[in-house]
Protein backbone atom coordinates (compact mmCIF):
# COMPACT_ATOMS: atom_id res chain seq x y z
CA UNK A 1 0.00 0.00 0.00
CA UNK A 2 1.36 3.44 -0.93
CA UNK A 3 0.85 6.81 0.74
CA UNK A 4 -1.17 8.79 -1.78
CA UNK A 5 -0.57 12.09 0.02
CA UNK A 6 3.17 11.83 -0.59
CA UNK A 7 2.68 12.34 -4.33
CA UNK A 8 -0.41 14.50 -4.29
CA UNK A 9 -0.28 17.99 -5.88
CA UNK A 10 -0.98 19.66 -2.53
CA UNK A 11 1.92 17.86 -0.82
CA UNK A 12 4.26 18.67 -3.71
CA UNK A 13 3.22 22.32 -3.55
CA UNK A 14 3.86 22.43 0.20
CA UNK A 15 7.29 20.84 -0.22
CA UNK A 16 8.16 23.34 -2.96
CA UNK A 17 7.05 26.25 -0.79
CA UNK A 18 9.17 25.05 2.14
CA UNK A 19 12.25 24.53 -0.05
CA UNK A 20 11.78 27.82 -1.92
CA UNK A 21 11.91 30.25 1.02
CA UNK A 22 14.69 32.77 0.53
CA UNK A 23 16.82 35.20 2.50
CA UNK A 24 15.33 38.57 3.33
CA UNK A 25 18.08 41.14 3.75
CA UNK A 26 18.21 44.92 3.94
CA UNK A 27 21.57 46.58 3.17
CA UNK A 28 22.07 50.19 4.24
CA UNK A 29 25.07 52.54 4.17
CA UNK A 30 26.26 54.47 7.24
CA UNK A 31 29.14 56.51 8.63
CA UNK A 32 30.28 56.97 12.22
CA UNK A 33 32.27 60.10 12.96
CA UNK A 34 35.40 59.32 14.99
CA UNK A 35 38.29 61.47 16.11
CA UNK A 36 40.51 60.13 13.34
CA UNK A 37 37.86 60.46 10.64
CA UNK A 38 34.63 58.76 9.56
CA UNK A 39 34.17 55.01 9.82
CA UNK A 40 32.12 54.11 6.75
CA UNK A 41 30.25 50.81 6.85
CA UNK A 42 27.29 48.87 5.54
CA UNK A 43 24.72 47.16 7.73
CA UNK A 44 23.16 43.90 6.52
CA UNK A 45 20.01 43.21 8.55
CA UNK A 46 17.78 40.26 7.83
CA UNK A 47 17.11 36.54 7.87
CA UNK A 48 19.41 33.92 6.37
CA UNK A 49 17.85 30.63 5.34
CA UNK A 50 19.91 27.62 6.40
CA UNK A 51 19.50 24.37 4.50
CA UNK A 52 20.56 20.82 5.22
CA UNK A 53 21.04 17.66 3.22
CA UNK A 54 18.69 14.98 4.43
CA UNK A 55 19.60 11.29 4.20
CA UNK A 56 17.58 9.61 1.47
CA UNK A 57 17.52 6.66 -0.86
CA UNK A 58 18.80 6.71 -4.41
CA UNK A 59 19.37 4.12 -7.09
CA UNK A 60 22.88 3.04 -8.02
CA UNK A 61 23.96 2.55 -11.61
CA UNK A 62 22.68 -1.03 -11.69
CA UNK A 63 19.33 -0.07 -10.22
CA UNK A 64 19.89 -1.35 -6.68
CA UNK A 65 19.14 0.82 -3.66
CA UNK A 66 22.01 2.82 -2.22
CA UNK A 67 22.59 5.55 0.37
CA UNK A 68 22.34 9.12 -0.87
CA UNK A 69 20.99 12.59 -0.08
CA UNK A 70 17.83 14.32 -1.08
CA UNK A 71 17.80 17.93 -2.22
CA UNK A 72 18.88 20.29 0.58
CA UNK A 73 15.88 21.66 2.42
CA UNK A 74 15.41 24.71 4.59
CA UNK A 75 15.23 24.18 8.34
CA UNK A 76 15.90 27.60 9.91
CA UNK A 77 15.67 31.32 9.25
CA UNK A 78 18.35 32.99 11.35
CA UNK A 79 18.18 36.73 11.94
CA UNK A 80 21.39 38.70 12.17
CA UNK A 81 22.81 42.17 11.69
CA UNK A 82 26.25 42.31 10.09
CA UNK A 83 28.38 45.44 10.10
CA UNK A 84 31.08 45.51 7.43
CA UNK A 85 33.53 48.40 7.28
CA UNK A 86 34.10 49.77 3.80
CA UNK A 87 37.48 49.45 2.11
CA UNK A 88 39.09 47.38 4.88
CA UNK A 89 39.67 44.18 2.88
CA UNK A 90 38.57 40.58 3.16
CA UNK A 91 41.15 39.63 5.78
CA UNK A 92 39.79 41.93 8.46
CA UNK A 93 38.79 40.13 11.69
CA UNK A 94 35.14 39.11 12.04
CA UNK A 95 33.42 38.85 15.44
CA UNK A 96 30.27 36.72 15.75
CA UNK A 97 28.36 37.71 18.90
CA UNK A 98 25.32 36.32 20.69
CA UNK A 99 23.60 36.60 24.04
CA UNK A 100 22.24 33.72 26.04
CA UNK A 101 19.26 32.83 28.18
CA UNK A 102 18.45 30.42 26.64
CA UNK A 103 15.80 32.70 25.22
CA UNK A 104 17.64 36.04 25.08
CA UNK A 105 18.12 37.89 21.82
CA UNK A 106 21.44 39.58 21.08
CA UNK A 107 19.99 43.07 21.54
CA UNK A 108 22.02 43.42 24.75
CA UNK A 109 25.50 43.04 23.28
CA UNK A 110 24.34 44.61 20.02
CA UNK A 111 23.02 47.91 21.39
CA UNK A 112 24.78 47.85 24.74
CA UNK A 113 28.39 47.25 23.76
CA UNK A 114 29.44 46.14 20.27
CA UNK A 115 27.41 47.96 17.62
CA UNK A 116 27.98 51.43 16.14
CA UNK A 117 24.78 52.59 17.83
CA UNK A 118 23.98 52.06 21.50
CA UNK A 119 20.95 52.46 23.70
CA UNK A 120 20.68 55.40 26.08
CA UNK A 121 19.47 53.32 29.03
CA UNK A 122 21.05 55.09 31.95
CA UNK A 123 22.26 53.14 34.96
CA UNK A 124 21.23 52.03 38.44
CA UNK A 125 19.66 54.97 40.24
CA UNK A 126 19.95 57.18 37.14
CA UNK A 127 17.74 55.62 34.46
CA UNK A 128 16.91 57.49 31.28
CA UNK A 129 13.14 58.18 31.07
CA UNK A 130 11.41 55.80 28.67
CA UNK A 131 11.30 55.39 25.77
CA UNK A 132 15.05 55.79 25.59
CA UNK A 133 16.86 56.79 22.42
CA UNK A 134 20.05 55.80 20.63
CA UNK A 135 23.52 57.28 20.81
CA UNK A 136 26.57 57.03 18.56
CA UNK A 137 28.88 54.35 19.95
CA UNK A 138 32.34 55.75 19.29
CA UNK A 139 33.86 52.84 21.23
CA UNK A 140 32.24 50.25 18.94
CA UNK A 141 34.26 47.12 18.23
CA UNK A 142 33.61 47.83 14.54
CA UNK A 143 36.72 50.00 14.75
CA UNK A 144 38.76 46.79 14.98
CA UNK A 145 36.65 44.10 13.29
CA UNK A 146 33.55 43.47 11.25
CA UNK A 147 30.64 42.39 13.43
CA UNK A 148 27.87 39.81 13.09
CA UNK A 149 25.12 40.03 15.73
CA UNK A 150 23.28 36.69 15.68
CA UNK A 151 19.93 35.91 17.29
CA UNK A 152 19.54 32.29 18.42
CA UNK A 153 16.47 30.31 17.44
CA UNK A 154 13.10 31.82 18.47
CA UNK A 155 14.81 34.97 19.72
CA UNK A 156 14.82 38.25 17.82
CA UNK A 157 13.37 37.46 14.38
CA UNK A 158 14.94 33.98 14.13
CA UNK A 159 12.38 31.26 13.51
CA UNK A 160 12.25 27.63 12.35
CA UNK A 161 11.63 27.25 8.63
CA UNK A 162 8.03 26.34 7.70
CA UNK A 163 7.55 22.66 8.35
CA UNK A 164 10.28 22.45 11.01
CA UNK A 165 9.17 21.74 14.57
CA UNK A 166 10.49 24.47 16.90
CA UNK A 167 11.60 22.05 19.60
CA UNK A 168 13.93 20.43 17.09
CA UNK A 169 16.11 23.57 17.37
CA UNK A 170 15.69 24.24 21.10
CA UNK A 171 18.50 22.50 22.94
CA UNK A 172 22.19 22.56 23.71
CA UNK A 173 23.39 20.43 20.78
CA UNK A 174 20.78 21.74 18.33
CA UNK A 175 21.62 25.36 19.14
CA UNK A 176 25.36 24.68 18.94
CA UNK A 177 25.07 23.06 15.52
CA UNK A 178 22.76 25.79 14.20
CA UNK A 179 25.08 28.65 15.16
CA UNK A 180 28.16 26.81 13.86
CA UNK A 181 26.39 26.18 10.54
CA UNK A 182 25.44 29.86 10.37
CA UNK A 183 29.07 30.92 10.90
CA UNK A 184 30.29 28.65 8.09
CA UNK A 185 27.47 29.85 5.83
CA UNK A 186 28.28 33.51 6.54
CA UNK A 187 31.99 33.07 5.83
CA UNK A 188 31.13 31.48 2.50
CA UNK A 189 28.52 34.01 1.41
CA UNK A 190 30.74 36.96 2.29
CA UNK A 191 33.98 35.38 1.01
CA UNK A 192 35.67 35.84 4.38
CA UNK A 193 37.45 32.51 4.85
CA UNK A 194 40.79 34.32 5.32
CA UNK A 195 39.48 36.62 8.06
CA UNK A 196 40.55 35.91 11.66
CA UNK A 197 37.44 34.57 13.39
CA UNK A 198 36.31 35.61 16.87
CA UNK A 199 33.34 34.39 18.90
CA UNK A 200 31.81 36.51 21.67
CA UNK A 201 29.08 35.42 24.03
CA UNK A 202 27.37 36.70 27.13
CA UNK A 203 25.84 34.56 29.91
CA UNK A 204 24.48 31.34 28.34
CA UNK A 205 26.04 32.81 25.22
CA UNK A 206 29.40 31.90 26.75
CA UNK A 207 28.21 28.30 27.11
CA UNK A 208 27.20 28.57 23.45
CA UNK A 209 30.52 30.18 22.43
CA UNK A 210 32.59 27.38 23.94
CA UNK A 211 30.36 24.72 22.38
CA UNK A 212 30.31 26.42 18.97
CA UNK A 213 34.08 26.85 19.05
CA UNK A 214 34.44 23.11 19.62
CA UNK A 215 31.90 22.30 16.90
CA UNK A 216 33.66 24.55 14.40
CA UNK A 217 37.02 23.03 15.30
CA UNK A 218 35.92 19.38 15.38
CA UNK A 219 33.38 19.31 12.54
CA UNK A 220 34.55 21.98 10.09
CA UNK A 221 38.24 22.50 10.98
CA UNK A 222 37.49 26.18 11.48
CA UNK A 223 39.55 27.47 14.40
CA UNK A 224 38.65 30.73 16.19
CA UNK A 225 41.47 33.19 16.72
CA UNK A 226 39.81 34.27 19.95
CA UNK A 227 36.80 33.66 22.19
CA UNK A 228 35.39 36.44 24.38
CA UNK A 229 33.36 35.25 27.37
CA UNK A 230 31.33 38.01 29.02
CA UNK A 231 29.67 37.06 32.32
CA UNK A 232 30.43 33.39 31.71
CA UNK A 233 28.81 30.19 32.92
CA UNK A 234 30.96 27.22 31.91
CA UNK A 235 29.82 24.59 34.41
CA UNK A 236 26.25 24.72 35.68
CA UNK A 237 27.21 22.66 38.71
CA UNK A 238 29.09 25.67 40.06
CA UNK A 239 26.04 27.97 39.98
CA UNK A 240 22.88 25.84 40.22
CA UNK A 241 21.61 25.32 43.77
CA UNK A 242 20.69 21.65 43.91
CA UNK A 243 20.39 19.36 46.97
CA UNK A 244 23.74 18.04 48.17
CA UNK A 245 25.76 20.49 46.07
CA UNK A 246 27.61 23.02 48.23
CA UNK A 247 29.67 24.50 45.36
CA UNK A 248 27.27 27.37 44.51
CA UNK A 249 27.18 28.58 48.13
CA UNK A 250 30.97 28.91 48.04
CA UNK A 251 31.14 30.56 44.63
CA UNK A 252 28.35 33.07 45.25
CA UNK A 253 29.71 34.38 48.55
CA UNK A 254 32.21 36.89 47.06
CA UNK A 255 29.43 38.26 44.82
CA UNK A 256 27.19 38.73 47.84
CA UNK A 257 29.99 40.63 49.55
CA UNK A 258 30.45 42.88 46.50
CA UNK A 259 26.71 43.63 46.33
CA UNK A 260 26.66 44.36 50.07
CA UNK A 261 29.50 46.82 49.48
CA UNK A 262 27.51 48.55 46.73
CA UNK A 263 24.73 49.19 49.26
CA UNK A 264 26.91 50.64 51.98
CA UNK A 265 27.36 47.54 54.14
CA UNK A 266 31.16 47.91 54.17
CA UNK A 267 31.43 51.62 54.79
CA UNK A 268 34.93 53.03 54.44
CA UNK A 269 36.36 49.93 52.74
CA UNK A 270 37.54 49.48 49.16
CA UNK A 271 35.54 47.05 47.01
CA UNK A 272 38.63 45.06 46.08
CA UNK A 273 39.56 44.55 49.73
CA UNK A 274 36.07 43.24 50.50
CA UNK A 275 36.15 40.89 47.50
CA UNK A 276 39.60 39.59 48.38
CA UNK A 277 38.53 38.83 51.94
CA UNK A 278 35.37 37.05 50.79
CA UNK A 279 37.27 34.99 48.22
CA UNK A 280 39.84 33.91 50.80
CA UNK A 281 37.06 32.77 53.15
CA UNK A 282 35.18 31.00 50.33
CA UNK A 283 38.28 29.08 49.31
CA UNK A 284 39.73 28.21 52.72
CA UNK A 285 37.43 28.16 55.77
CA UNK A 286 33.97 27.99 54.19
CA UNK A 287 34.35 24.60 52.42
CA UNK A 288 35.51 22.97 55.67
CA UNK A 289 32.60 24.46 57.61
CA UNK A 290 29.98 23.26 55.15
CA UNK A 291 31.60 19.84 54.85
CA UNK A 292 31.05 19.20 58.58
CA UNK A 293 27.27 19.43 58.27
CA UNK A 294 25.59 18.30 61.49
CA UNK A 295 28.97 17.59 63.02
CA UNK A 296 29.64 21.32 63.34
CA UNK A 297 29.36 22.40 66.99
CA UNK A 298 27.02 25.15 68.15
CA UNK A 299 29.80 27.59 68.97
CA UNK A 300 31.58 27.00 65.66
CA UNK A 301 28.30 27.36 63.84
CA UNK A 302 27.57 30.70 65.50
CA UNK A 303 31.07 31.98 64.79
CA UNK A 304 30.72 30.95 61.15
CA UNK A 305 27.34 32.69 60.90
CA UNK A 306 28.82 35.89 62.29
CA UNK A 307 31.72 35.80 59.82
CA UNK A 308 29.43 35.18 56.85
CA UNK A 309 27.00 37.85 58.01
CA UNK A 310 29.76 40.44 58.33
CA UNK A 311 30.93 39.66 54.81
CA UNK A 312 27.55 39.79 53.07
CA UNK A 313 25.71 42.43 55.09
CA UNK A 314 22.90 40.42 56.72
CA UNK A 315 22.19 39.29 60.28
CA UNK A 316 23.94 36.27 61.83
CA UNK A 317 20.56 34.92 62.98
CA UNK A 318 19.33 34.78 59.38
CA UNK A 319 22.53 33.04 58.25
CA UNK A 320 22.04 30.44 60.96
CA UNK A 321 18.42 29.92 59.94
CA UNK A 322 19.50 29.11 56.37
CA UNK A 323 22.09 26.64 57.71
CA UNK A 324 25.07 28.79 56.64
CA UNK A 325 24.00 28.18 53.03
CA UNK A 326 22.85 31.41 51.40
CA UNK A 327 20.88 30.89 48.18
CA UNK A 328 21.11 33.84 45.80
CA UNK A 329 17.44 34.79 45.41
CA UNK A 330 16.98 34.51 49.17
CA UNK A 331 19.97 36.82 49.70
CA UNK A 332 18.65 39.38 47.19
CA UNK A 333 15.34 39.49 49.08
CA UNK A 334 17.03 39.70 52.50
CA UNK A 335 19.86 42.20 52.01
CA UNK A 336 17.72 45.36 52.02
CA UNK A 337 14.58 43.93 53.62
CA UNK A 338 14.74 46.50 56.42
CA UNK A 339 14.42 49.21 53.74
CA UNK A 340 11.53 47.48 51.97
CA UNK A 341 13.66 46.80 48.88
CA UNK A 342 14.73 43.84 46.77
CA UNK A 343 18.08 43.75 45.03
CA UNK A 344 18.82 42.98 41.37
CA UNK A 345 20.01 39.55 40.24
CA UNK A 346 21.48 40.52 36.87
CA UNK A 347 23.00 43.57 38.53
CA UNK A 348 23.01 43.83 42.32
CA UNK A 349 23.37 47.62 42.21
CA UNK A 350 19.71 47.92 41.14
CA UNK A 351 16.83 47.90 43.65
CA UNK A 352 13.04 48.10 43.67
CA UNK A 353 10.29 48.12 46.30
CA UNK A 354 9.47 44.65 47.58
CA UNK A 355 5.99 43.45 46.69
CA UNK A 356 5.96 41.09 49.66
CA UNK A 357 7.98 42.33 52.64
CA UNK A 358 8.27 38.81 54.12
CA UNK A 359 8.93 36.88 50.90
CA UNK A 360 11.65 34.23 51.14
CA UNK A 361 13.06 35.23 47.76
CA UNK A 362 12.89 38.04 45.23
CA UNK A 363 9.69 38.04 43.15
CA UNK A 364 11.21 39.84 40.16
CA UNK A 365 14.56 41.21 39.02
CA UNK A 366 14.78 45.01 39.28
CA UNK A 367 17.78 45.19 36.95
CA UNK A 368 16.01 43.45 34.05
CA UNK A 369 12.74 45.23 34.79
CA UNK A 370 14.45 48.63 34.60
CA UNK A 371 16.79 48.00 31.62
CA UNK A 372 14.71 45.86 29.26
CA UNK A 373 12.20 48.58 28.22
CA UNK A 374 15.00 50.80 26.90
CA UNK A 375 16.48 47.98 24.83
CA UNK A 376 13.04 46.93 23.54
CA UNK A 377 12.13 50.39 22.27
CA UNK A 378 15.60 50.97 20.85
CA UNK A 379 15.90 47.75 18.83
CA UNK A 380 12.39 48.00 17.38
CA UNK A 381 13.00 51.58 16.28
CA UNK A 382 16.54 50.92 15.06
CA UNK A 383 15.82 47.87 12.90
CA UNK A 384 12.82 49.43 11.18
CA UNK A 385 13.78 53.09 11.15
CA UNK A 386 17.53 53.02 10.50
CA UNK A 387 18.33 49.56 9.13
CA UNK A 388 15.08 49.39 7.11
CA UNK A 389 14.18 45.82 8.05
CA UNK A 390 10.74 44.87 9.24
CA UNK A 391 8.91 41.64 9.96
CA UNK A 392 5.36 40.66 10.72
CA UNK A 393 6.45 38.74 13.83
CA UNK A 394 7.45 40.15 17.21
CA UNK A 395 11.14 40.81 17.84
CA UNK A 396 11.58 38.55 20.85
CA UNK A 397 13.83 40.35 23.35
CA UNK A 398 13.51 37.63 25.98
CA UNK A 399 11.42 34.60 25.10
CA UNK A 400 10.15 31.69 27.16
CA UNK A 401 9.12 30.00 23.90
CA UNK A 402 12.48 28.20 23.71
CA UNK A 403 11.59 26.09 26.75
CA UNK A 404 11.83 23.27 27.49
CA UNK A 405 15.47 23.54 26.43
CA UNK A 406 17.03 20.12 25.89
CA UNK A 407 20.21 19.09 27.69
CA UNK A 408 19.87 15.44 26.71
CA UNK A 409 23.63 15.20 26.05
CA UNK A 410 24.25 15.71 29.77
CA UNK A 411 21.92 13.14 31.26
CA UNK A 412 22.93 12.30 34.85
CA UNK A 413 25.73 14.87 34.90
CA UNK A 414 26.26 18.61 35.11
CA UNK A 415 25.93 20.73 31.99
CA UNK A 416 29.43 21.98 31.28
CA UNK A 417 31.56 23.20 28.37
CA UNK A 418 34.91 23.30 30.16
CA UNK A 419 35.85 20.12 28.32
CA UNK A 420 34.94 21.74 24.98
CA UNK A 421 36.93 24.83 25.82
CA UNK A 422 39.92 22.79 26.95
CA UNK A 423 39.86 20.72 23.77
CA UNK A 424 39.82 23.82 21.56
CA UNK A 425 42.77 25.32 23.43
CA UNK A 426 44.71 22.06 23.19
CA UNK A 427 43.99 21.62 19.50
CA UNK A 428 44.73 25.22 18.55
CA UNK A 429 47.90 26.80 19.96
CA UNK A 430 46.87 30.24 18.65
CA UNK A 431 43.37 30.53 20.15
CA UNK A 432 43.10 32.99 23.05
CA UNK A 433 40.41 33.68 25.64
CA UNK A 434 39.17 36.97 27.02
CA UNK A 435 36.96 36.72 30.10
CA UNK A 436 34.93 39.61 31.56
CA UNK A 437 33.33 39.45 35.02
CA UNK A 438 31.00 41.86 36.80
CA UNK A 439 31.54 41.93 40.55
CA UNK A 440 27.83 42.65 41.14
CA UNK A 441 26.53 39.90 38.87
CA UNK A 442 24.35 37.50 40.87
CA UNK A 443 23.39 35.45 37.80
CA UNK A 444 26.84 34.17 36.82
CA UNK A 445 29.15 34.79 39.80
CA UNK A 446 32.74 35.65 38.98
CA UNK A 447 34.26 33.25 41.51
CA UNK A 448 32.57 30.27 39.82
CA UNK A 449 34.07 31.28 36.50
CA UNK A 450 37.51 31.75 38.05
CA UNK A 451 37.25 28.26 39.53
CA UNK A 452 36.35 26.61 36.22
CA UNK A 453 39.06 28.46 34.29
CA UNK A 454 41.67 27.42 36.85
CA UNK A 455 40.65 23.78 36.35
CA UNK A 456 40.68 23.63 32.56
CA UNK A 457 42.46 20.58 31.21
CA UNK A 458 45.25 22.57 29.56
CA UNK A 459 48.94 23.16 30.31
CA UNK A 460 49.74 25.80 32.91
CA UNK A 461 51.41 27.89 30.19
CA UNK A 462 48.12 28.04 28.29
CA UNK A 463 46.27 29.20 31.39
CA UNK A 464 48.86 31.87 32.19
CA UNK A 465 49.61 33.16 28.69
CA UNK A 466 46.46 32.74 26.61
CA UNK A 467 43.63 33.47 29.07
CA UNK A 468 43.00 37.11 30.03
CA UNK A 469 40.54 37.83 32.85
CA UNK A 470 39.20 41.29 33.67
CA UNK A 471 36.81 42.36 36.44
CA UNK A 472 34.46 45.36 36.38
CA UNK A 473 32.56 47.24 39.09
CA UNK A 474 29.12 46.48 37.69
CA UNK A 475 26.85 43.53 37.01
CA UNK A 476 26.06 40.94 34.36
CA UNK A 477 25.65 43.57 31.64
CA UNK A 478 28.49 45.67 32.96
CA UNK A 479 28.28 47.99 29.95
CA UNK A 480 25.26 49.82 31.43
CA UNK A 481 27.81 51.27 33.89
CA UNK A 482 29.64 53.91 31.85
CA UNK A 483 33.15 53.52 33.34
CA UNK A 484 32.88 49.74 32.91
CA UNK A 485 31.60 50.12 29.34
CA UNK A 486 34.56 52.26 28.38
CA UNK A 487 37.05 49.91 30.05
CA UNK A 488 35.48 46.77 28.57
CA UNK A 489 35.34 48.30 25.09
CA UNK A 490 39.03 49.09 25.21
CA UNK A 491 39.92 45.68 26.63
CA UNK A 492 38.00 43.96 23.81
CA UNK A 493 39.65 46.16 21.19
CA UNK A 494 43.07 45.22 22.52
CA UNK A 495 42.07 41.55 22.54
CA UNK A 496 41.04 41.62 18.88
CA UNK A 497 44.24 43.49 18.00
CA UNK A 498 46.20 40.73 19.70
CA UNK A 499 47.51 42.94 22.48
CA UNK A 500 47.49 42.39 26.22
TrEMBL record:
Keyword Protease tagged: yes
GO molecular function: serine-type carboxypeptidase activity
Keyword vocabulary terms for this entry: Carboxypeptidase, Hydrolase, Protease
Keyword Protease included in the entry's annotation: yes
GO-annotated biological processes: proteolysis
Biased composition regions of type Basic and acidic residues, renumbered to the chain: 50-60
Region named Disordered: 49-68
Protein name: Carboxypeptidase
Lineage: Bacteria, Bacillati, Actinomycetota, Actinomycetes, Micrococcales
